[in-house]
Amino acid sequence: MLRTIKPKNARSKRALDARLPKEVEDPRTTVFVRGVHTGDVLNGVMRDLMALKRPHAIAFSKKNDIHPFDAASTSTASLEFWAQKNDASLFVIGQTTKKRPHGLTFVRMFDNRVLDMLEVGIESWVSMADIKTPKSTPGNKPLMHFASDLFDTNPRFAQLKSMLISLFNGEVIDSICLAGLEHVISVSLGPSVPTSSSATAGAEDFSALPTVHIRTYTARLLASGTRVPRVELTPMGPSLDMKLRRHTPPDPELLKHAMQKPKLKKTDIEKGVGQKRKNKEVDEMGDLRGRIHVGKQDLNKLQTRKMKGLKGGDVETEEREGETEGQEEQEEEQDTDRRKKKRRRDSD
């Protein structure tokens, strides 16, 4: 159990208050930990991932005897201590063994406690230094692309997607300039491997899961003759091919607390923050769509061109009435002419 630290002065109190939960959390600080045996491949992978994560990355220079998935070890206590000391909520642990070579473990924390863990095995790797192209500015938010439906349907790949978003998300912002998207992280899956009939039904076959491909590109905005620029992607590195291995799902009770939203203040409620927007929704592309309800229209009062074909009732009857009115008008005109002639005669 972690001890409670009481502030001794105002400076330490401000430092502790900065670590308290917030409505909009700070960027996740990630700690990169090396195990007892890592090797050149894992050291290079962690170095490139830390370059993409900067400036919110901390690297431990010493090797640590840590085994997150071993229940008998004290790794959980070590992770909780490091999380509280460095105000970190994410760990990337590199460890290679004969049974699991080039293993990379992602550990996500909540309230200085382990929320969930995911282990992957690095199969191939191309470093950023081997790709002689311009690099993006450290600290910029990437544009992440997940090119498979399994990231939304399969729970294993959904956990990987959530973990990668937590790793590279960075600072939460309301809007971003188009020129600020300097690099793109593309995550795709290889073809699925058919499972063997001799595999144990109770054990999970990690080799049957498709390979995960991570590619990083820099984006160039070129002229296209329109308002929308033409985007050209250039490989930046690193390039990773990895397989999913062991994992620990989040505890339901702890996940419930992690997903809990803070209560709104009275001033925010008066401003309308948090209220449900009726007849408004955001589609999968992020566009805001609305629905407008129009009252019942009376088409009989609609003003149209006065044509015989559009008039209501019997057309022949209306034509007869029109002819009768025309004859009456002619008779009135003839009577008027007779009266005028009679007056002229009388005057003469």
TrEMBL record:
Residues 280-299 have a biased composition (Basic and acidic residues). GO terms for biological process: maturation of LSU-rRNA from tricistronic rRNA transcript (SSU-rRNA, 5.8S rRNA, LSU-rRNA); ribosomal large subunit assembly. Residues 1-13, 339-348 have a biased composition (Basic residues). Coiled coil: none annotated. The lineage of its organism: Eukaryota, Fungi, Dikarya, Basidiomycota, Agaricomycotina. Residues 1-20, 269-348 are annotated as: Disordered. Belongs to the RPF2 family. It comes from Mycena pura. It is found in: Nucleus, Nucleolus. This is Ribosome production factor 2 homolog.
